[in-house]
């Protein structure tokens, strides 16, 4: 009996090492710093397939390699301990930029304009191109001609860069649903 038990423990250890090696091949080590914004996996869902990330929260401190204290703003600034597997980095979406430039013919009024730049309308979804150049430091990376080409390109394709949602006829997508009983068999 003792020999069988030792053999079972030895075999179990070998399999454990193999499984850990296989898992670690695709595992991504996540490490967060204090002050990083993260999303937290909501674990109390009625259906385990209904994954929902909540947040963003802010890392308050690190307890160990795998445990972090996270402060959630939407929960009255309450802190809670989360395992690293329940966290993922939060990336704030970049601001959407919509630029409107209309072609103007040279008139005496346009000549008197100091900068000679057609300014966008007062629409809140339209941003000032000069501000975009300043904030992104394009002048350091692009020549004057390249910036002018960018200005013209954005003006020509202003509908593409719009904040208003649209639709296209270029792509179609079909979702084929399985009968309920067949779907239950495939899931189990």
From TrEMBL:
Q: Which domain of life is it from?
A: Eukaryota
Q: Which InterPro entries match?
A: Integrase_p58-like_C (IPR054465)
Write one Pfam family the protein is assigned to.
Integrase_p58_C
Question: Where is each Integrase p58-like C-terminal domain found?
Answer: 55-89
Protein's name according to its UniProt entry = Integrase p58-like C-terminal domain-containing protein
